[in-house]
Amino acid sequence: MAGDLNLDLVFNEDLYTSFVGERIKLGRKITSNLKKQFYTIEGSEILSNQWGTAPGEYLTFLNCHIFLLPGPPYELRNMFSNYVKDFVRTRDYIGLRSLSVVNMGESQVETLLRRKLNLPDLEVNTYVHDKLVEIKLLSKGQDENKVNKRLDQAEEQLLELFRGNIYSFKIENLQERVVKLCREKNLLISFAESITGGFLAKTIT
Predict the structure, then answer these.
(1) Of 7, 18, 156, 180, which one has the greatest count of Cβ atoms within 10 A?
(2) Angstrom distance (rounded) from CA 120 to CA 118
(3) How far apart are CA 43 and CA 60, in angstroms?
């Protein structure tokens, strides 16, 4: 597909690192061929795959809307229902945003969302990743600018609603985020541990 569109394939380091971390936690082997699943088409929007390994992709090209989805039937059906079904019916522009929340359970997050977040034409879903909760925002409409403005407003409300608990605007685990922030700010972390036997240090190395 990338070759047909004359676009480059780009290795998505963030997605791959997150995937490897989850596999290691589950005690599963990391094989070299898995890495191929994390090359994405230049300029595409990543569609999170909650039902399997390989992510989906969405991009526009010459006024065409292109969805690339994983092949296994179970993953394909869920990805289609979650991302493509409404789009095919309406042909609207689809905007997606993700926010990761820490130190709150899914039911607690959902309760706050139901009570406090009230914006028209906005679909909000939550997904659990290990001990973290992802808030997925989806909005669609004929006007791309209005859709993105709606998503910006939702993000502002969520930042206020979950102040101190939102740590990332994409799917990545807390350890990855801590390491990235330390590198960006040129900070070092030291641990003095006895009971845990160096567990904290191990989680970020």
Answers:
(1) 18
(2) 7
(3) 9
